[in-house]
Amino acid sequence: MKIMKNNSLQVRPVSTRSANRSCIFSACLLFFNVHLAAQPFEVGHTALTFTDPARNNRSVPCEIYYPADLAGDNVPLAALGGAFPVVSFGHGFVMTWEAYQNIWEAVVPEGFILVFPNTETSFSPSHLDFGLDLAFAIGQVQSLGQDANSLFYGKVAATSCVMGHSMGGGASFLAAQSDTSISAIATLAPAETSTSAILAAADLQIPALIFAGSNDCVTPPGVHQLPMYDALSSECKAYVSITGGSHCQMANNNLLCNIGEASCTPAPAISRAEQHLIVGRYLLPWLKFQLKGDCPAGEVFDAAIATDPAITYQRTCELCPATNTEEMASSKGGRVYPNPFNETLQVIAADYLPSEFSLFDSMGRQVLRQNFSGTFSADTRRLANGIYFFEMKSQHGTQGKGKLVKE
Length: 407
Known about the structure:
With 407 residues, the chain is α/β, with parallel strands linked by helices.
């Protein structure tokens, strides 16, 4: 099946599988700075060099970012949170890992280890070697999880994802082709490589997520990303085209990438910050579902992709189809679901504007108040069963009210 479209409160992930797809429409978007859960981890960092004996003792220096209780270099991994999945990320042509701070600052606090092989940075890179480096780095970090003398001992999950931008995105297909233990692939404006990423895609059956920018003049989607998506043998794959998005805006500001992009048209039609928001809107819940089995995160991805005016898309699956059809309370001020509710409420702002949400009990007493943008999840376990009333106000003055029932 191919689905196509053109067009101060504790925050927790939704714990119900009850979103009614027919009720969730364009307001159901997840802003990059309002994640599925409050970021529970700080970002730790270390630099390690691995040696690959299978390739003449090739040296693979890596920058590694990981969940920690205290931010810093070589600090211990977070004591709680169990074992963390590994994500290997490949940089773009003549770029390095420093250009992807936007990625590690979004992904790592959500409970993922992010490793950046810092190889093939010259003007004549080997795409195949880079792909093999991406796969090798995943295996090495996972091995450290079994090493009692390692910083990573006992903290590395078996699941993994290979990622990359531009050249690194194309090399990610080569990485996944070389190592069938890799769980998933996600790429940002991937570029066709000299050892063909498009041909490699045909061998891949793992879940895949491909981002493209409609205004990408460096790696035009029709020549690069769409052929990769079409070639994939994955039963569950998604293609997200960011309307007005560009090639270089997938990353942080980078001089060499900017020079290349300035020489072609069309130019970006949205800001870098907007493009980062859109990438995070889909990347974070997708990773949580694919690598952690987080079904509520999959529901958020499914709801957002089907209704977001900032993208066009293709996909062959829903991540976590709803099993129930509870009513969603709605008003011109936004959406609140499920209704009836139990442990959590999912609140969505109208038109994605900064908003204020208030919840009142049957006696008119305010029991919850939250300022937010986009969407948030409210922990309602402390509330007694009964009838409640909500009110939402946006910064432009639009208001919405409704009744909810807690069972």
